[in-house]
Amino acid sequence: MPTNTPPHRSNRPRLCKALGVAALGLGLTFGATPAVADATFPSPEGNGSLSAIKFSADTVKELKKIERSSRHNVKVSTLRELGIPNATSERGQDLYVATVGTGENHIWVQARIHGNEPFGTDATLNLLKSLGRNGSKQYQALRDHYTFHFIPMYNPDGADDNIRHTTRDADNRRVDLNRDWATNGFTAKESSAWYQYWTEVDPMFALDIHHQGLKRQHDTNDPVSMSLGVSLAPGGPTLPGLSGGSYDTLTRQSMVHVYDALSKYGYTNVDRYQVGNNLEIDIKGGVVSAMMLGLNHNGLNPEGHSHPAVFLETSGNTSPGSIGQKARGKLIKQNEHAALALFTGLMDGTIAATDPERWEDIPHAPTAGYQTDYAGIVPK
Ligand SMILES: [Zn+2]
User: Where are the transmembrane segments (predicted)?
Assistant: First the structure.
């Protein structure tokens, strides 16, 4: 979710992963420079990180493998196969979604809208694998209650280039896909394709998985492994006015529930997502924000379908030295624990029974205001 803008455009062709870290030279900076961190957190000694990152072809291969080996009907499709016109990335790559479950409650789980934020891809693939194979009562209940729509790689071009954006084929302009579900947006093909799919699914909830830079808790200075976020700030200028305030309540309840669930794991240290300068995020053109706003683009959502949505920010990213191998498995796993807690808590009523005011108890700096994409900084 961090909003760094690359200093220059690039005409580079697809990144060859064999290039390795040293050859990247992308000039990526994410707030904090990698610092010495605990063994369980991203470490500057971590090297070879790109070799463990899934690019587009790896992801497609893994999806097909999961589909073949699933026992509970995992279905992998391209959006083109689903009849969505012109549904490719800017570079013409197919866009893949995998479904599992037979329930009437549709859940949308997307990862890698920012191409250089890789672990959501691994986490969604692992969740898909478990939901497709696990025969336990808990997983059967999830499959009966939900139909899951997993998008392990929203932005395959950005992933292959190891950059945040997609790059427009027409003019080489870079587009942040997470600001492109906007009234004047839909400037990239990926946005139109995924948006149309969203209007066909009509989910009841969405989860969006990101990375942030290395972060420390504001008061204790302990390294943070994950931050929990809502892209229209709870209690902020926008969210309380949506759906009679129900999304303001349900998103906070959900994040408190996830916070409690992750607290059981010793390696996690979770806080609330904030942008710099103690500001909360309040963007309308972010994909999961537009979902909550019920955006009607091109007349495809005339009924104004909307639903609550939240996001996760795992610490560390693909800039050199930011992701240590030691931490990789745990950083991925915390996303899976968070997602499963969310799915289960929404299903069994635990989240509905959670006190939303405990959102204030999740560590965060005192809120100074709101960073918006519609009115600059709005004071509290
Ligand atoms: Zn992001």
Answer: none
Between the CA of 113 and the centroid of ligand 1 the distance, in Å, is 7
CA–CA gap between residue 163 and residue 167 (Å, rounded)? 9
| 110 φ/ψ sector (left φ>0, alpha ψ -120 to 50, else beta) | beta
- Cα(317) to ligand 1 centroid in Å equals 10
Query: Which SS3 state, helix, strand or coil, does residue 23 take?
Result: coil
CATH superfamily of 40-379: Zn peptidases (3.40.630.10)
CA–centroid distance, residue 64 to ligand 1 (Å): 26
Q: Are 143 and 101 in contact (CB under 8 A)?
A: yes
- How close is the Cα of 154 to the center of ligand 1, in Å? 11
Q: Does pTM surpass 0.70?
A: yes
CA of 202 to the centre of ligand 1 (A): 23
| Burial (0-12, 13-18, 19+ Cβ within 10 Å), 260 | middle
> How many whole angstroms from 114 Cα to the centroid of ligand 1?
5
Chain segment 269-311, per-residue pLDDT in tens: 999 999 988 999 999 999 999 999 999 999 999 999 999 999 9
The alpha carbon of 180 and the centre of ligand 1 are apart by a number of angstroms equal to: 13
Rounded Cα distance, 187 and 185, in Å? 5
